[in-house]
Amino acid sequence: DAMVIQNPRYQVTQFGKPVTLSCSQTLNHNVMYWYQQKSSQAPKLLFHYYDKDFNNEADTPDNFQSRRPNTSFCFLDIRSPGLGDAAMYLCATSRDRSGSGLDTQYFGPGTRLTVL
Amino acid sequence: AQSVTQLGSHVSVSEGALVLLRCNYSSSVPPYLFWYVQYPNQGLQLLLKYTSAATLVKGINGFEAEFKKSETSFHLTKPSAHMSDAAEYFCAVSARSGYSTLTFGKGTMLLVSP
Questions:
Q1: What is the DSSP string of A30-49?
Q2: What average pLDDT does range A17-29 have in this prediction?
Q3: Among A21, A22, A103, B54, which one is least packed by beta carbons within 10 Å?
């Protein structure tokens, strides 16, 4: 089945220790998104890639970076995690950007990040 | 810019009762509207989507939603709740044309009691 896969499902890191979260997709979608979801809150978009074009949200901290080496994979790098970065990180994909009619987003199961 | 407001952070129903989760949108033109469901420790799953073909949209698991332009609403309903429906539900909006991101409401937790 075509799907969005996130690894690992649970990640524990130490305060200030860089961490990388992984997302892969078999849907061959053009767009890949990273969301941060804190407890009992709505998902908050951090950034997205349209093909190789990187789009950062204005309020995403510089501590968060992303890489998309090819269509299938996208990584979220947190350079120096703080306690406030503990959250569920969701990866999503869509065939095209919002507003195009082909913008239904398909989500992975998420990675829950704990910062000690 | 578009936004959505979900009324009620928690909704409690008994098994077999009607489910009604409220969503109102704010947009200068009718947007695309979505309902997603999130089970504990899982990602979001699309329930249904409104694009303009029909104002009553049927989704998975027996859910449906009706787009009402005059009320700027897109409420989610299910005639008979099941225990397995207990989850968090998010309404979301995106612009109909041009580029825009998906904007989520704050979510409504549905609690189903036996």
A1: SEEEEEEE-TTS--EEEEEE
A2: 95
A3: B54
